Amino acid sequence: MDSTPLQQFEREAHRAQASRDELVELIARAIREDGTVEPLKGLHLNRASSPREPLHSVYDPVFCVIGQGSKEIFLNNERYQYDPCHYLLVTAELPL
């Protein structure tokens, strides 16, 4: 029997959630407390269990993936939010 579009959507949603759960578990194994680790040269994992105060910085080129929660950045007057369903890709140095 063929699946309905709704059943296919639900299966894909379940797979996506399972992948996010796996990512969270793998990150938790690599970094058990708040802070930053570099398990491989150039791979930085950050963990923060609670919201932080705004921080002014310059991002180098980076690809950011969020396992849980969300993060927001401001570039000029524009607000960008990323979370487990949205990543951040910065291809040039940016003051954020």
Key attributes of the depicted protein:
two-stranded antiparallel ribbon, alpha+beta, 27% helix, two-stranded antiparallel sheet
Write the SSE topology.
Layout: H1 5-30, E1 35-40, E2 43-47, E3 58-59, E4 62-64, E5 71-75, E6 78-82, E7 88-90, E8 94-95
Antiparallel strand pairs: 1-2, 3-8, 4-7, 5-6
Please indicate the percent range of residues in DSSP E strands (runs of 2 or more): 25-35%
| Order of strands in the sheet with most strands | 1-2
Q: Would you tell me the structural class of the helices and strands? A: alpha+beta
Helices, by number, come to: 1
Low-confidence stretches: none
N-to-C series of helices and strands? HEEEEEEEE
Helix content: 25-40%
- How far apart, in Å, are the first and last alpha carbons? 52 Å
User: Mean pLDDT, rounded to whole units?
Assistant: 89
Question: Any idea what the shape is?
Answer: globular
Task: Say how many strands there are.
Answer: 8
| Main pleated-sheet profile | 2 strands, antiparallel
- Radius of gyration equals 17 Å
